[in-house]
Amino acid sequence: MALRFAELLFTRAVRAAQARYGGRADRLLTAADPRDRLGPDEVEFLQTRDGFHLATVGETGWPYVQFRGGPPGFLQVLDERTIAWADFRGNRQYVSTGNLDPAGEARVAIIAMDHARQLRIKLLGTAQIIDADADPELAARVTVPGYRAVVERIVVVTLAAFDWNCPQHITPRYTAEELQDVMAPLVAELEQLRAENARLRSADPRVRAG
Questions:
Q1: pLDDT for 24 beyond 80
Q2: Pairing label, strands 63-69, 75-79
Q3: What is the edge-to-edge ordering of all strands in the sheet holding 119-131?
Q4: What phi, psi does 8 have (nearest 5°)?
Q5: In the beta sheet, which residues pair with residue 65?
């Protein structure tokens, strides 16, 4: 576990729950990873995601979780402590948008998944919204060529902590593209078998006669 992530989330109430239910707070903190900045593994993982779940908190105190999706590359790592993504035009409810602060003080939590490899990363940070017209350079960075959705805003998150989560209980799932990669050898073998079957059939005079 990442040290900073544990420091932020292991509150007194959490520690009490760990003590009650047999948690491992002390051992986790002792063995915690001191890194608090995104490295090459995190950058590669985040920038190849086609979606993630974003948690915000409204002014009434209710949390709200929303899936944010797009083609790989719509989420970008700007530097080792900052990520940003294109906020595409959607159903125009603007719940997550309304919960965020243009000044960058709104706290958010993010979970990004790779179901095929049973990987996930959790991030904590503060978010701000920037209109796409206000920063064309940044808008261009989070725009994926060929994707027709309209980028209305850019969400920029300054990270407070992150942590790779264990793969336990992650059910493997595959996108259509991932399935194509998995199935490619089987499809190739099937085509070879079909070609071989056609060759054998054409070489057998009994088949030709029939």
A1: no
A2: unpaired
A3: 63-69, 51-57, 106-114, 119-131, 151-165, 82-88, 75-79
A4: -75, -35
A5: 55
